[in-house]
Every structure is written in structure tokens, then in C-alpha cells.
């Protein structure tokens, strides 16, 4: 089994400088010396590093494209891929790759750590080594066990486009609030095979790296003013808006809010209703206060994460240009398991 380990940056790739006691990015030789287990097992691990390494707070869509292109260019050489990435924007990057790599048949596992690899109590080794084992795992038919883009962190494997960073302090930094974890690592790794997304078996891998970042997040709050809403909706070049609403997709029933949203949609801006709640889904029409959104032409985001919705919108705008009818249709369609459109609804405890 051969796995490609892709360094993009982040805390996991840091080591402590013994001279200054400060953290610095590790070169590959230093990293290998810190994790000798990489060369001790039955899995061959090759390494490829971005130059320069990127702090995840600086990640932009062009970096997503490079990550996806790297997987695509090396696809036939390896059984799976592990991407080392900073935690702050990991869910954004991993979600984006789930849309950029269409018909994926091999694992692409993102992981990182809360503490650098060279620190005594670091979670880096456990996350890294388990991610590699998952990327190499095969089922009884000899197929990749998890042929999709995922995030592995602190014993849990999450579908990438269902994940979100929930904690900056604890080792259990990520959650998948609306979809169960795909695997749980303990003494053994227990896979929930019925939850794993598989592309059509004979479909070839297709790469989509064009993006359009002209999107925005508009979060509603008590006391929000027309000027604030109008400022966002009149941003030059704006293509799409994630409208973070209350509860199951509710918004203030102000006439001016409806008029602002309707005007923006009439101008070709696509607006998607996404609940502010960390778990749950949008149910437009359940309460009267969501009816004006429907009347204005706002789309339902169902149970998608903000990270996945932003990445999906950027990818669709980049690939499909001004074909808003097709974009609206695909935003309401599950492309890589990112939304549950039917009446069936999962929670993280569903099994």
C-alpha cells in the first residue's frame, strides 16, 4: 500500500526550535525524525510539501485548487492521500475538495493537530498515523474502505463536507452535527460502511478547480438594520449569499428585509437559507416568519454546514458561470453527501 502525505502547513507540521524554544515549520527530514513510525510499518508513505507552507488562516481558493490538482496528478500512483492542514480552515478546504474531485474512488483524509508534533502531549502522531491507516484501508472486495474526502481528528472520521471546527481548546476539535461519523478509532477502527458515500463504480475521476469567491455570509441578529443588509447585498460583483437565519430557517418579518432580499434575487444574486444552529436543518414554511423568504426566492440550505455551502457556491459559480438556473438546481442537490434533501434526517448519534 502506498500513501501520499501532502504537507500544506498548520500546527501539526511545527517543531520547537531548541535554540529559541519557539515553534517553526519543520522540513521533511525533521518531521520524519519526529515520527519514525512513518517508515516502520507495512504502508509506504511518500511525502510532498507545499513551498512555502501555509497558515490555514491564509488559505484561499487557489490553495484548494492546488491541493485538488496534487491529488489528481498523483491519483494513479497511490492508494490514498493524507493532507496535513491547519485546523482553523480545515473544514472549508476539505469541503471544497469534496466538490473539486468528482467521482473519487480513493480516500483523501485531512488531519492536523491542536499541538505541534514535537510537543510531548501532542495529538499529532495519533491523528496522523490513524489517518494513514484509514487512507490505506480496504474492504472485503478490495476497494478503498472510505473513498471520499474526510476529516479525521481525535478518534473520529467525519465526511469532510459535514464537518466543522467546534473547539479551539480541546483535542476533540471537530464535529459533524448533522451526520454520524463514518468511523470511530479505538483499539480497532470501526467503520460504519452503510454511511460511506461511494461514487458510481465505473465513473472516471474528474477535476474541477475553477472557483468564484464572490460570496458572502449575512448573519441575522436582533436589531439588524436595513443599512447593514443593503451593504452586504449591494457588494460589487456579489454572486451568492449564505443567509444565516434563526432556528429552522426563520427571519424577521420586516417588509424592508423582504424587499432587500427580493431585489437582490431579481438582480441575479443567489441566496441560500442556512440555520445559525450548530445542529438541525432548515424547514422553510414551517413557521410563518419563513414564508417571506420563500416568496422572495431564497433557497433552502437543508442541513448543510456553512463551510460546505460556501465552498459549494464558489465551485459552482466558478464552473458554471452565469447559469443560475443550473446552479440553483445543484445547490438543492446532494453532490457529495453534503446535504440530506429527503425526509430522512441524521443526527450524530444515528447508527
Summarize the structure in short.
This protein is α/β, with parallel strands linked by helices and 351 residues long. The protein has helices spanning 28-34, 61-73, 90-100, 124-136, 226-233, 255-266, 291-296, 306-320, 324-331, and strands at 2-7, 14-16, 23-25, 44-49, 80-84, 101-102, 108-111, 149-153, 156-159, 164-165, 174-175, 183-185, 189-191, 206-207, 215-219, 240-245, 270-275, 299-300. It folds into 2 domains: 2-207, L-asparaginase, N-terminal domain (Rossmann fold), CATH 3.40.50; 215-331, 3-Layer(aba) Sandwich (Rossmann fold).
Structural write-up:
The protein is α/β, with parallel strands linked by helices. The protein has 2 domains: 2-207, Rossmann fold, CATH 3.40.50.1170; 215-331, Rossmann fold (3-Layer(aba) Sandwich), CATH 3.40.50.40. Helices cover 26% and strands 20% of the residues. It has helices at 28-34, 61-73, 90-100, 124-136, 226-233, 255-266, 291-296, 306-320, 324-331; strands spanning 2-7, 14-16, 23-25, 44-49, 80-84, 101-102, 108-111, 149-153, 156-159, 164-165, 174-175, 183-185, 189-191, 206-207, 215-219, 240-245, 270-275, 299-300. The strands form 5 sheets. Strands 4-1-5-7-8-9-12-13 form an 8-stranded mixed β-sheet, with helices on both faces. It is globular.
Amino acid at each position: 500500500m502506498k500513501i501520499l502525505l501532502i504537507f500544506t502547513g498548520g500546527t501539526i507540521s511545527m517543531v520547537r526550535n531548541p535554540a529559541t524554544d519557539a515553534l517553526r515549520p519543520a522540513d521533511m527530514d525533521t518531521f520524519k525524525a519526529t515520527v519514525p513510525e512513518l517508515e516502520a510499518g507495512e504502508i509506504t508513505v511518500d511525502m510532498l510539501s507545499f513551498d512555502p507552507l501555509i497558515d490555514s488562516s491564509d488559505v484561499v481558493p487557489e490553495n484548494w485548487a492546488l491541493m485538488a490538482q496534487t491529488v489528481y496528478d498523483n491519483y494513479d500512483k497511490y492508494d490514498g492521500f493524507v493532507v496535513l492542514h491547519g485546523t482553523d480552515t480545515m473544514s472549508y478546504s476539505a469541503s471544497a475538495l469534496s466538490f473539486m474531485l468528482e467521482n473519487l474512488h480513493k480516500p483523501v483524509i485531512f488531519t492536523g493537530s491542536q499541538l505541534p508534533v514535537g510537543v510531548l502531549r501532542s495529538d499529532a502522531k495519533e491523528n496522523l498515523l490513524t489517518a494513514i491507516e484509514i487512507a490505506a484501508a480496504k474492504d472485503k472486495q478490495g476497494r478503498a474502505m472510505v473513498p471520499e474526502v474526510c476529516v479525521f481528528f481525535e478518534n473520529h472520521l467525519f465526511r469532510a463536507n459535514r464537518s466543522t471546527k467546534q473547539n479551539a481548546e480541546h483535542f476533540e476539535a471537530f464535529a459533524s452535527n448533522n451526520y454520524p461519523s463514518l468511523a470511530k478509532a479505538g483499539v480497532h477502527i470501526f467503520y460504519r460502511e452503510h454511511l460511506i458515500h461511494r461514487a458510481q463504480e465505473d465513473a472516471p475521476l474528474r477535476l474541477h478547480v475553477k472557483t468564484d469567491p464572490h460570496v458572502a455570509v449575512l448573519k441575522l441578529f436582533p436589531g439588524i438594520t436595513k443599512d447593514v443588509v443593503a451593504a452586504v447585498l449591494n457588494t460589487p460583483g456579489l454572486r451568492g449569499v449564505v443567509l444565516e437565519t434563526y432556528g429552522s430557517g426563520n427571519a424577521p418579518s420586516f417588509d424592508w428585509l423582504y424587499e432587500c432580499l427580493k431585489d437582490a434575487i431579481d438582480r441575479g444574486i443567489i441566496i441560500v437559507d442556512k440555520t445559525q444552529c450548530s445542529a438541525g436543518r432548515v424547514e422553510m414554511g414551517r413557521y410563518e416568519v419563513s414564508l417571506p423568504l420563500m416568496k422572495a426566492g431564497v433557497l433552502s440550505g437543508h442541513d448543510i454546514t456553512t463551510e460546505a455551502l460556501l465552498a459549494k457556491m464558489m465551485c459552482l459559480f466558478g464552473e458554471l458561470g452565469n447559469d443560475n438556473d443550473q446552479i440553483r438546481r445543484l445547490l438543492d442537490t446532494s453532490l457529495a453527501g453534503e446535504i440530506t434533501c429527503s425526509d430522512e434526517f441524521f443526527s450524530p448519534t444515528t447508527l
